[in-house]
Amino acid sequence: MRIKQISVNGLFGVFDHVIPLNMRDRITIIHAPNGFGKTIILKMLNGFFNSKISIFRTIPFKIFKVDFDDRSKIEVEKNSEHSNGTTRKDKVNFVLHQPQQESPLRFSATEKALRPDVDFPPSILDEIIPGLERIGLRRWRYLPTEDMLSLEEVIDRFEDILPSKIRKSKREPDWLKQARNNIHLRLIESQRLLNTSSRRSDSYLGNSPLEIASTVSQYSGEIADIIQTKLTEYGATSQSLDRTFPARLVQQETSENLADKELRFQLEQLEQKRSRLIEVGLLDKDESSDFQIQTQTIDESTKNILSVYIEDVKKKLSVFDEIASKINLLREIINQKFQYSYKEINFSKEKGFVFTTKHDNKILSPTDLSSGEQHELVLLYELLFKVEPNSLVLIDEPEISLHLGWQVQFLQDLQKITELANIDILMATHSPDIIQDRWDLTVELKGVSQ
Question: Which of 50, 188, 352, 405 is the most buried (most CB within 10 A)?
């Protein structure tokens, strides 16, 4: 299932926006002046699919709607109620419309209860939530809005940033859980493009160079683990094929129609593939694997042996097909950008990322990369290695970490990634340099008609 369209009515009490997604090109770009709600729409979409419901309580809107390609749709409705003439309580409802059902399914987000095992000092909330001021034993004032909140209201509004033991349990119906599970969605925010996959609700990550470098180091370790896992799979496949090679060779039928030229071509293709895998760090160089076969040496018996050998090597090397394509694309894009600073990236099974200077091949650490280089590497790694196929990825203002030359190239790089990783992109940007000549991919958010 894929998202076909997103819309919101009454955003900030002013805006009505409709955003159809480009289903064919798989990249949709939202652009508008500041204050029209580009970032907020991404956060609302992320809030629904990643169970961060408090976003709907803090943002003024009437209806937020997501249409799917199977003609079903989810609506999030917000109604404000006032108690005692002072306190406003926002009621958020979820409504599922399906073409095969006459009546929609409804659920109110207020149908929740505190976890029975909640036991924590109230002062911890003051430390976790910026702008929260305690005015009583179990009463707070939220300074940005001047709202007076009870303990339950604080937990309800800020559940996304609270430790799991303090959050409320959600008694959601199965249909709502299923609607969320049908879509894999990932938000990469502008502040900042770092450690978005491992960011936890019970911790805070800033955006200092050291923290960004730590993220690069973390991902470097991850890619080393991925390579090691593939090498283990390669070894197991090789052992299995080698063990059964004699039996399969005996059973092999005579390859009378297999031309010498075709045999040599297939062997050359395998050696080229092996060389590419060595180049990107997935295989060690093995000098004994390089050989040439002369036409006169290929008799019928040799043809049979080579035909079985060729099929076996194809199966062995196919283990690396997916990761090799991703590593190669990441390496290609990053090195194109790093060439201006005379650096390059390579990969190894021991270290993961290997950064070197081009003029003297000196090894660099992640902290030797510029902040922009680190941000770009983190973003591209996330898209290629940490997003599931058929996911929708939300990217907010990628131009913040890109200089002009990188902005011009960004959309072309993104198109290569979406095709290889099989993902959809919804991006919010101010930059015409990001868009280039692809205005056909854009949706402009309009203001209020005068």
Answer: 188
- The tens-digit pLDDT sequence of the chain (450 residues) is 899 999 999 999 999 999 999 999 999 999 999 899 999 999 999 989 987 777 887 789 999 999 999 999 999 998 866 555 555 566 889 999 999 888 999 998 764 433 434 456 777 888 788 888 888 888 888 887 788 888 777 876 776 666 655 555 557 889 998 998 999 999 887 654 444 344 333 332 345 555 556 788 999 999 999 999 999 999 999 999 999 998 888 887 665 566 778 888 888 999 999 999 999 999 987 644 555 555 456 677 778 888 889 999 999 999 999 999 999 999 999 999 998 899 999 999 999 999 999 888 999 988 888 888 888 898 899 999 999 999 999 999 888 777 888 899 999 999 999 999 999 999 999 889 999 999 999 999 988 765
Spacing of C-alpha 417 from chain mean position: 11
Q: Are 180 and 48 in contact (CB under 8 A)?
A: yes
Domain end (from 170, 191, 214): 170
User: Among 446, 416, 432, which Cα is nearest to 27's?
Assistant: 416
DSSP letter for 59, please.
Answer: S
Please state, in angstroms and rounded to a whole number, the distance separating the CA atoms of residues 167 and 170.
9
| Final residue in a domain of this structure, among 321, 349, 376 | 321
Shared-domain flag, residues 232 and 314: yes
Q: Integer distance in angstroms from the first to the last C-alpha of the chain? A: 38
The pTM assigned to this predicted structure is: 0.79
Tokens of 35: 């204050």
Tokens of 440: 């056909």
**Residue 124 counted as domain residue:** yes
On whether residue 424 sits in a domain, the answer given is no
Nearest to 115 by CA among 174, 52, 166: 166
Measured from the Cβ of residue 401, the count of other Cβ atoms closer than 10 Å reads 22
φ/ψ region of 68 (left if φ > 0, alpha if ψ in -120 to 50, else beta) reads beta
| Cα(344)–Cα(338) distance, integer angstroms | 6
User: Structural domain tally of the chain?
Assistant: 2
Q: Is residue 47 part of a domain?
A: no
Residue 77 corresponds to which tokens in the numbers above? 């409705």
Q: Is residue 64 assigned to a domain?
A: no
Same domain, 308 and 231: yes
* DSSP labels, 185-200: EEEE-SS-SSSTTT--
- Which residues form the domain of 269? 225-321
**Do 159 and 245 reside in the same domain of the chain?**
no
Angle at 39 between CA 145 and CA 129, to 5 degrees: 40
